[in-house]
């Protein structure tokens, strides 16, 4: 598996371990359950799994509130089970990255317990304390549905502590060299155990400075580079993936000159994939990509359609957000913070053509794609569950009781109705050549045969119809043309300057003349010269 740039060609798969597969009947998915399902993941064509937090945690934020950085929560198994998972995955050529939450701990973490126990505790300065809640005024509140301030009052020691997320997630004080050292140890611990890298949670907020928005500060970048330096020296094939919800210019700073993050989620692109579809207009996608700075050779964008959070709408204009809410969140309970707490299939009204179309964009736009577990079979969501839990329901394996997820009582109710496991499950879709799963799998496998998708340049092709999104990806002499019809009418496409050439559609092996192509509604075509 030796290949330092492996992440540039990789297809990623994001998993909630709790929701994936239960091995011991306690109703909670676990590491052994996930290990049992590696064949499924391999068959889909996944190169790297991202597992969401599995650390001991009071679960006030589904594990993004960590109480112990050096262990696995009992529900998921033991450290040995994680080692078993890593070994079994590596045997199949699959890597595993995990969440690394640097910015904050749980309020139950021993550091915070000590910190809040006494103003003179040596751990006091592990967190950000203040006599006044007027410090850092104007800094945005991310979990605005629940939190009204970034400061929380501590009765016992009569000061406020700083938190960018829930008040049960106090921010660590990165000005303290001891905190900086602790987190380097955490990084080293998991990489030594065999983990292949980290999805770094909320790296944007490590430092605070008066008079700024306390985001992406130079001090924060300097510290993140220290982590990278450690990785490069000790674990050269491990990666860091940034979860920073910012505009392209600011986002690209996380790559720095190739010595900070290997990868970063392209947050501004994601909603524009939906916008382009909603408006039958390629411009939202082409414009944001034209505004995206080029990045160093050893860096890569992570592109995604959905994840475990709400579909976040921070990186659009107010007008675009209104349009997105109107089209994709018609009921008020679908909106969460600024975003939309729904899964991919329901957002697109379970329209198979649209679901395939956006997946075609996911697999062919510049970057490495991340599939959210269950979206490859078109799973639904449960709006009755609070917060973002409705998109974290058990994976639907088959039509046996509890979807084949557990032999016990599942930790949460299963999806009912048209998206229920009786209708939507992996077993049925694997068996059916016309299923969504099979369409996604086909795209993944074709993608894997051509470096052009992970490494190639992109050039947009002008067309006479703003509802056609056409581009050519090119790398090392190979050229592949991608043509998408974003609307519901039949359109025709002419490839300028490519007269009389015969092309092969990689998706169905049919020969086509690109001089005049008929594009069915929402159709997508991956064309290569014969
Ligand atoms: C990230 C995670 C989200 C979590 C938050 C706080 O945004 O994706 O799920 O709640 O960080 O850790
Ligand atoms: Ca279990």
Essential attributes:
530 residues; alpha/beta; six-stranded antiparallel beta sheet; 16 helices; 21 strands; binds alpha-D-glucopyranose; binds calcium ion
Could you explain how this protein is built, in words?
The strands form five sheets. Strands 1-2-3-7-8-9-10-13 form an eight-stranded parallel β-barrel. It starts with 11 loop residues before the first strand and ends with a strand. A hairpin with a 2-residue loop joins strand 11 (335-336) and strand 12. It is of the alpha/beta class and 530 residues long. It contains 16 helices and 21 strands. Helix 9 runs antiparallel to helix 10 (283-290). The chain binds alpha-D-glucopyranose and calcium ion. The site of calcium ion (CA) has 6 residues, from loops.
Can you count the helices?
16
Poorly predicted tracts of residues = none
Query: Nearest-angstrom radius of gyration?
Result: 23 Å
Average pLDDT level = 97
Task: Walk me through the topology.
Blueprint: E1 12-15, H1 17-20, H2 31-36, H3 38-44, E2 48-51, H4 79-91, E3 95-101, H5 110-117, E4 129-130, E5 151-154, E6 159-162, H6 177-193, E7 197-201, H7 218-234, E8 239-242, H8 248-252, E9 263-265, H9 269-279, H10 283-290, E10 300-304, H11 318-328, E11 335-336, E12 339-340, H12 344-347, H13 352-364, E13 368-372, H14 426-431, H15 436-448, H16 452-455, E14 457-460, E15 468-475, E16 478-485, E17 491-493, E18 502-505, E19 510-513, E20 517-519, E21 524-529
Parallel strand pairs: 1-2, 1-13, 2-3, 3-7, 7-8, 8-9, 9-10, 10-13
Antiparallel strand pairs: 4-6, 5-6, 11-12, 14-15, 15-16, 16-21, 17-20, 18-19, 18-21
Helix pairs in contact: 6-7, 9-10, 9-11, 13-15
Bound molecules: alpha-D-glucopyranose and calcium ion.
Alpha-D-glucopyranose (GLC) binds at residues 61, 64, 101, 165, 201-202, 243, 308-309.
């Amino acid at each position: 598996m030796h290949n330092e740039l492996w992440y540039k060609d990789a297809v990623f798969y994001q998993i909630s371990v709790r929701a994936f597969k239960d091995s011991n009947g306690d109703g909670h998915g676990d590491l052994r359950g996930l290990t049992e399902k590696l064949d499924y993941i391999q068959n889909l064509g996944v190169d790297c799994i991202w597992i969401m937090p599995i650390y001991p945690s009071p679960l006030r934020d589904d594990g993004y509130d960590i109480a112990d950085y050096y262990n696995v929560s009992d529900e998921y198994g033991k450290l040995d089970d994680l080692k078993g998972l890593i070994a079994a995955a590596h045997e199949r050529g699959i890597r595993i990255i995990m969440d690394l939450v640097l910015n904050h701990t749980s309020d139950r973490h021993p550091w915070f317990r000590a910190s809040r126990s006494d103003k003179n505790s040596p751990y006091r300065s592990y967190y950000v304390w203040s006599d006044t809640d007027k410090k850092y005024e104007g800094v945005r509140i991310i979990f605005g549905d629940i939190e009204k301030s970034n400061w929380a009052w501590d009765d016992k020691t009569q000061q406020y502590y700083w938190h960018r997320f829930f008040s049960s997630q106090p921010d660590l004080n990165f000005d303290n060299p001891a905190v900086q050292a602790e987190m380097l140890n955490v990084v080293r611990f998991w990489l030594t155990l065999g983990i292949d890298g980290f999805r770094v949670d909320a790296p944007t907020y490590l430092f605070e400075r008066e008079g700024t928005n306390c985001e992406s500060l130079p001090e924060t970048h300097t510290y993140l580079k220290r982590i990278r330096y450690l990785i490069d020296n000790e674990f050269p094939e491990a990666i860091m993936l940034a979860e920073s919800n910012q505009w392209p210019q600011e986002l690209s700073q996380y790559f720095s000159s190739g010595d900070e993050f290997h990868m970063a989620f392209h947050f501004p692109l994601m909603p524009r994939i939906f916008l382009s579809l909603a408006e039958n207009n390629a411009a939202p996608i082409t414009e944001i990509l034209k505004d995206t700075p080029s990045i160093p050779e050893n860096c890569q964008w992570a592109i995604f359609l959905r994840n475990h959070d709400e579909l976040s709408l921070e990186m659009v204009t107010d007008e675009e957000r209104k349009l997105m809410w109107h089209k994709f969140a018609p009921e008020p309970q679908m909106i969460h913070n600024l975003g939309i707490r729904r899964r991919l299939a329901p957002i697109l009204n379970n329209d198979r053509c649209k679901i395939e179309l956006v997946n075609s964009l996911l697999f062919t736009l510049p970057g490495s794609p991340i599939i959210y577990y269950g979206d490859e079979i078109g799973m639904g969501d449960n709006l009755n569950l609070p917060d973002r839990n409705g998109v974290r329901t058990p994976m639907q394996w088959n039509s046996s009781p509890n979807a084949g997820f557990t032999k016990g009582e599942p930790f949460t109710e299963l999806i009912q109705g048209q998206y229920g496991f009786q209708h939507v499950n992996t077993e049925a879709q694997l068996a059916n050549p016309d299923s969504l799963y099979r369409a996604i799998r086909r795209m993944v496998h074709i993608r894997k045969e051509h470096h052009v998708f992970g490494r190639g340049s992109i050039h947009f092709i002008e067309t006479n119809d703003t509802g056609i999104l056409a581009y050519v990806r090119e790398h090392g002499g190979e050229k592949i043309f991608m043509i998408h019809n974003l609307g519901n009418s039949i359109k025709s496409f002419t490839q300028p300057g490519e007269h009389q050439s015969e092309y092969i559609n990689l998706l169905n092996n049919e020969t086509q003349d690109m001089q005049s192509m008929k594009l069915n509604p929402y159709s997508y075509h991956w064309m290569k010269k014969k």
